[in-house]
Amino acid sequence: MPKPSPVKKRRANTAAKVRLQRGAKRTPKVLAKKPRTARSASSQKATVRTHRSSTVPKRAQSTHAKEISTDRSAGKSMSRDEKPRQLIRTASLKQYEAAVRFLYSHDYEKARIAFEKVIATFADDKEVLERCRIHLRLCEQKLARRPSAARTLDEHYDVAIALMNQGKYDESIDHLNRALKSDPKCDYVIYALAATQCRTGDFDSALANLQTAISLKPENRFLAQRDSDFETLKQDSRFASLVFPDQPPAPTR
Length: 253
Hints:
Elements: H1 6-26, H2 38-54, H3 58-104, H4 108-121, H5 126-143, H6 153-165, H7 169-182, H8 187-200, H9 203-216, H10 219-226, H11 237-243
């Protein structure tokens, strides 16, 4: 048998390669899919559930945010409103107590002015307002009495205070002296006499009567410390030693 020539042999090899390439194109390779394991499936489900549970609609998020901001702003507004109320109540009680002190010292004109000021300034404080109205009516009744009708000690005293507030100091002193005829040791009458004498400039008599009033009732010392009627005596060392005994004396120059 004759041997094939090298050219024919080369052609046969080339044809065989072409047939192999065409066969490979006709039969595409199929890759085997990896089976899902139970672990991967469960983890996927857990991931989906977690994702769904943590997802909140935008409308719900905005509504929730508004509610939280509203609650916080309401809390802040309450705390801000509460502080002014406490300050107002403290101020109203302070002025009310000052008016009551005028009433207890039978200075009805000053008490009337003080109660009217509390009513005009603190109209929202109903409790203090009601008490002020009761005391104000009492002051008006006391001040409505005429000087000619004064007979008892308290009547002379009321008239004397009204006259002193009007600047009629001589007439006021006259009624106070009439009141002392009924009770020479009435401390509040002597105290009022000292205040009136201080207004007239009779400081020696004022200091003597003030000392008597304090000896009869030590509480008169605290009234004198804040009483504007003794303003002209505040720089007097005798007044300071009498009204402020616990304070050291001022150094002399």
